[in-house]
Amino acid sequence: MPRLALSSLVLLLGCAPTPEEAPAARGPLGDRLTPGTGGTTEPVLPTLAHADAELVINEVMASNDSTYTTGGDTPDWVEIVNLGPDDAELRYVTIGDRDGNEWTGRGTLSPGEYLLLTTDDLGFSLDADGDGVELKMYRETVDEVRWDDLGRDVSIARTPNLSGRHLTTAWPTPGEPNLDEISPTLDAATESVFRRDMVHRIDFTMDERNRNKIDTRQEKWGKVSMLIDGYQLSAVGLRLKGSASFDTLDGKPAFKVDVNRIVPGTRYRTLKGFNLHNGNVLDPTRARDHISYRLAREAGLMAPRIGWADVYINGEPYGIYIIVEQHDDVMIEANYPGMGDLGMMFEPNESRNGGWGFSDFGTGSAATSWDYEEGPIPPDPDMIAALNRADDLVSQRATDARVEELWEVVDQDSLLSYMAWESVVSHTDGYKAVNNWRVFIHPEGKVHLVPAGAEWTWDYTPDTYRWSGALASWCLDNRGCKRMYSARALEVARLVEEIELAQDFVEVSELIGPSIWADDRSRHSNASVRRTRNSTLDNIRQFPRDVRSDVCDKFPGLDDCAPD
């Protein structure tokens, strides 16, 4: 990260801090403690009065996107704490990196004090791709941290706070006590945005000019500020979205948020943006996206991650929204590490020239008419060739030889799992209706179907062998492909119970319930919410049985169809 212009030394004071007790903020640095300039002045020997000071590196971040700001900048940072009973004279303290850069302080650090040093304070930045921090007192190394690779918004923190080992976590706590445990994964978006245990708060602030610009069906972007869970982004792109769910700012509109649009390079917890769905039309429960996409991921598919937020605009409450991940390079990278800049994502139901496309395989125009949402420019010709070959095969009869040829350009597991998933959740608005779906092409040259628009699910009894989507219908026209799909449908149906999807639905419904009852802008009455919750819960239990019954009627010899 380049050196930043603003100094942001933060000093926090606490008395014998513990993981349960945060140190009290002292505010900006006073005269008593001033950051050094990164100079190499030779320290003198310590005085006896400060011999019992004990400093540790408590936390380090080398790729800060959205954990700590100084005047709008997001610098790397190092946090040290004095654990000893005596003051620590910082003129005897140095912090250095692997390249020999070094910071020397001035003033004192009292017992229990936290000192947060940014790249400007230190005089050097940290390398997320491989670096280290060494803390010395009186010329002797007292603590050090080294890493080979540190992800965006991921820190190395003593866990538990102060006394634990240096562990990597996506739950950073700059200037505050570390948590008692590390995050389950090191994906900052998963661990902070797409969580099933909290409802975020998002505040948008906009002036009248940008409000008028945004409040239109023309999908015009406006500039707003966004405060999300207390973290401020001063310049964010915002526009309205939706078709049947579309609404204006006088009602409850759906939004597309682009944190990268106004200031390129900006990210929030690795995300360039996200969608805010209003649940106006098809999902009074606001939980169907979550359970449907979760089942898709458990079945091995790339599918959007989900969260929830109470949204406010200029202080006015707009009620609860579903945070839905975008089908972009961040999503690709989260599912296929190292492929984020290489994979290609298409939206077939949007035209490359704008507007609705409603296109499909077998038309001879997949690569030229579908909206190319994400991928390298110019497109990889080998990947385009794979898409064109799949498009061409589907226009022909589904012989055994052509099915085998299809698996050379279409990922077999992905196609069968996608079809099985849509059947089990009864995805009324997906590829069964050739509406909400995506196509991803892996750099290795394999085509994948990707779920989208999963709010209209768990509503109508599954029709396991009916498809409007040409690729799925083509597979079902071949006895071998149909049997493979049927076997996979039984596995996904069984997965619903194995991952306790019904219980998951109950738990998230309880979590978001208070926000739903308080949402005065929603089109759904509380009675409608309760009815739909009950019917959805019943269908989560029943639909897998319906799919199993359909499959076993056609293929009674499959393993899951054998009598107990």
In words, what does this structure look like?
This protein has 564 residues and is of the alpha+beta class. Among the domains are: 10-186, no CATH class; 338-500, no CATH class. Helices cover 26% and strands 25% of the residues. It contains 13 helices and 24 strands. A 7-stranded antiparallel β-sheet has the order 2-1-9-4-3-12-13. Strands 14-15-16-17-18-20-19 form a 7-stranded mixed barrel. Strands 7-6-10-11 form a 4-stranded antiparallel β-sheet, with no helix packed on it. α9 (412-425) packs across α11 (479-498), α11 crosses α13 and α12 runs antiparallel to α13. It is globular, with a radius of gyration of 27 Å. 44% of the residues are buried.
Tell me about the largest β-sheet.
7 strands, antiparallel
Strand order of the largest sheet: 2-1-9-4-3-12-13
Q: Tell me, rounded to a whole number, the average pLDDT.
A: 89
Q: Number of DSSP helices?
A: 13
Percentage of β-strand residues: 25-35%
Q: Report the principal-axis shape.
A: globular
Structural class: alpha+beta
- Low-pLDDT parts are 1-51
Alpha-carbon Rg, integer:
27 Å
Distance between the termini: 62 Å
Helix share, percent: 25-40%
E-strand count: 24
